[in-house]
Every structure is written in structure tokens, then in C-alpha cells.
Amino acid sequence: MRDGQLALLRSEDPSLRLGRASVYKGDALRAYDSWLAPTAIVSDGPYGLGKFPGEPTSPDALAEWYAPHAAAWARRAKPDTTLWFWNSEIGWAKAHPALEMHGWRYEETVVWDKGVAHIAGNVNSRTIRGLPIVTEIAARYTRRTNLRSEDGAELPLQQWLRAEWRRSGLPLGQANAACGVANAATRKYLTACDLWYCPPGEAVAAMAAWCERFGPKTSRPYFSIDGVNPPKAAQWDRLRPKWNHAHALTNVWRELPARGAERVERPGGKGAFHANQKPLSLMTRQIVASSDPGDVVWEPFGGLMSASVAALRAGRIAHAAEPDPDFFEAGAARLRAELGRDRREAPDRVAS
Fold first, then answer.
1. Contact present, 150 and 167 (Cβ < 8 Å)
2. What pTM does this model have?
3. Which residues form the signal peptide (predicted)?
4. How far apart are CA 338 and CA 41, in angstroms?
5. pLDDT of residue 346
6. What Cα–Cα distance (Å) separates residue 283 from each residue in 112, 231, 341?
7. Angle between helices 306-313 and 325-351 (to 10 degrees)
8. Does 171 share its domain with 291?
9. Domain assignment present for 162
């Protein structure tokens, strides 16, 4: 299946198609190649607790367990893809080497603080031998993007930009004039130090045009991303992970686990499906921050499919996988309900 095209439903295909969402009943490793390329991946898989079939019983085994998934995510990712990796503190620490090995670049960690109410009445001060744990974390990763230089070397963006300008033989200072800035081009865009800042696409296009005008003529356009055509601003901007900033939102998110109508209960009054069901608000923050409406969100370890519900609510396309039959049905029911809510609200949106 090519990106941009949904596969036809086949009798041997265990995927459930629900409008802008598809849910694969089975191991996500068998589904990745049939999904549209992701802009955001929300991974909320094993923590090394041995609670589900196939889950490691210790965090020590998480790197090996996650490695094939990290490789598959990297293979299907775009330059602007963001990975949100949920786990415990020790679980993430153990899994991080597998992510890094497959080209995922660590950016930051979000701490989910569930608050004292999460453990109220459940701590015996006479027997406990440590601090009550009320946190989980979500580490944010992006892709390491390299571009091919004129001599065929694969270079990180910072080095590639400097190499392209130097190819012109022009003084670095002229880059400021090309971009219409006082000194940002030499101080940020073309610097070799750790103060480097990735330039916007319009600046790259401006430097390319300047070099074409004043530099020596070459068979390969200056700053050409594909080695054939002059760069376009939008083309360059797609090399960077998306980030939609929200003011006053830090990396510590204080919120109780899902409760009330949002909490998914098992049929027959048998209790909740998940003791620590994540609120939709957490998933929504991640998805809105790292993607735009119409983009694709992956949820490889669907569970109750909270990330997919949040993706639909935010106007994205969702792909999820879940092998457990009970969780699959519960998650699919949530997606159906969300799509039904969209249809009910559509006339109101049109009227307004």
C-alpha cells in the first residue's frame, strides 16, 4: 500500500475500518506496512510488568522487546514524525537504547503526576519501604534527518547547510544579506557551534537563490534537497518535526487517571478495564503539539485506544493495533462512539 491510499478490505485482513480510523486485531508489527505514514506515534506498550500475554516480566527485557517496533517506526517515519514513548521511569531508561539505535533522537520527557489522590487509602506506612509512585513518563523523540552532499556524504542538517554555502565560495557574511537579517544567518543558520538553529524554509530558499545569482554555476542547484531541483521553502519545512506550542504548558502534567464517564468499565459490573487509564486530555496535548489536522497518528499498542480517540477528536487519521479481543472490542466501541459524536455535531458546525 502506498502512502495516501487506504488498502481494500480483504477477507484475510483482520483490520476494522471505522471512518478515519483503522484498528488491526493482532500484533502491530504485522500492520505497520499497511498503515499510512505517521506524523505522530503514541506508544503506550509494555512496562515490563508481565500483566499481558507476551509482556516481559521485568523492565530489563524492554530494549529487546521494543527493538523491532522501533525499527519499523523508523522505516515508515517521515522527517517530521514525532514519537511519544510512554512508560515508567525505569522502563523508559531500559528501552531508550533500542530507540536511539534506530535513529530516534531524544528531545524531552513529560512527567504525568497523578497526584496524592491516586494512592489515597492504598499506602501502609508501617510496611512501605519507599515513596509512593504517582508518576509515569512520556519521552518525546524525533528523527535524525541527514541530507546527501555533493560528494555523496550523508550529513546532518547543520553540516549540510554549511557545506552547501561553502560550495558557492562566497563569504559567510553574505548569507545575512541573502536572508535579509542583521546576523542571524551567520550566528545561527550556518554556525558550526552548538548555538545552531535550524532556519525556516524561506531562509534556505533565499540563500539558494543568492548563491545561484552570485556564486559559480554548477550542475547541482545550491541547497538542493533532492540533488536535482532548487529547494522550496515548504519542502525544507517538512524536514523538521512539527511543533505547535501551547503557552504555560510545562513538562509536568498534573491530572488524575480517567474517571467518570471517560473511564471504560468491563461488561457486567466487573470493574474497570485499566487501573490507570490515561485521560484523553494527555493524549490530545501530545497529538495537537506534534501534528496538524489531517495528519496520521499511530497507536501501535491500542489497549482502550485513547490516543486514537483523541486523534479523531482533533481531526486526525488514526491507525491502531490491539491483539487482546476484549480490549480490541472495547477500544473499537470507543472509536465508533467518537465517530458518532462527530456526525451528530457536524450539522451544528455547518450552521455556525
1. yes
2. 0.90
3. none
4. 20
5. 58
6. 11, 35, 18
7. 10
8. no
9. yes
> Nearest 5 degrees, angle CA 268-CA 274-CA 279?
115
Locus of grid cell 519501604: 129
Q: What are phi and psi of 40, to 5 degrees?
A: -135, 140
Asked whether the CA dihedral 106, 101, 137, 75 is positive or negative, the reply is positive
Question: How far is CA 41 from its chain centroid?
Answer: 4
Q: For the segment 240-249, what is each residue's pLDDT rounded down to a tens digit?
A: 999 999 999 9
224 contacts 149 by C-beta, under 8 angstroms: no
Question: Whole-angstrom Cα distance, residue 325 to residue 303?
Answer: 10
- The predicted pLDDT at position 10 comes to 43
Tell whether the model's pLDDT for residue 239 goes beyond 50.
Answer: yes
Q: Evaluate if residue 252 carries a pLDDT over 80.
A: yes
Report whether 341 contacts 43 (CB < 8 A). no
Look up residue 106 and give its amino acid: Y
pLDDT at 120: 78
Distance CA 26, CA 147 (A): 36
What SS3 state is found at 16? strand
347 and 264 in a common domain = yes
Last residue of a domain, one of 207, 237, 267: 237
- Indicate whether 162 and 34 sit together in one domain: no
Residue 315 domain boundaries: 15-145+242-351
Q: Are residues 252 and 201 in the same domain?
A: no
* Number of compact structural domains in the chain: 2
Within this chain, do residues 211 and 78 fall inside the same structural domain, yes or no?
A: no
Q: Which three cell numbers stand for residue 242?
A: 512539527
* Boundary-marking domain end, from 185, 204, 237: 237
Cα-Cα-Cα-Cα dihedral sign, residues 164, 168, 169, 173: negative
Domain assignment present for residue 178? The answer is: yes
Same domain, 200 and 51: no
Output the domain CATH number for residue 336. 3.40.50.150
Any domain includes 328:
yes
What is the DSSP code string of 274-314?
-TTPPPHHHHHHHHHHH--TT-EEEESS-TT-HHHHHHHHT
